[in-house]
Specification:
The protein has 3 helices and no strands. With about 110 residues, the protein is mainly alpha-helical. The protein has one domain. The protein is flat, with a radius of gyration of 31 Å.
């Protein structure tokens, strides 16, 4: 009985969603796929990003301090991750050995 009630509620919910979708389809078809406002906004964003990129490339501060520190951080991160990987691999091997020993005992 409860299953039938949940099925009826589910069917009504799906029908309600479909009703709203089919009501909005004509309104959606009237709108253009691309608006000129959107294109203008994207062009402005591209121009601003281009200007920012030029400023960053010309910045001496970036080349002298930020990039070397970032490179050093990435190298240390890589070493830490490799050590973690090595530790986890050893731990997995020990667990496999324990499982093999338990299987041999039984």
């Amino acid at each position: 009985m409860i299953i039938i009630i949940f099925q009826i509620i589910f069917i009504l919910a799906v029908l309600g969603i479909l009703f709203f979708i089919f009501r909005k389809i004509p309104a959606l078809l009237e709108h253009p796929r691309r608006s000129e406002k959107g294109d203008v906004i994207y062009e402005n964003i591209r121009k601003q990003l281009g200007k920012a990129k030029e400023k960053v490339e010309a910045s001496e501060f970036l080349h002298e301090t930020v990039i070397p520190k970032t490179e050093k951080f990435l190298r240390k991160s890589k070493i830490i991750l490799l050590k973690l990987d090595n530790f986890l691999a050893k731990r997995a091997d020990k667990l496999r050995e324990k499982i093999k020993k338990r299987k041999k005992i039984k």
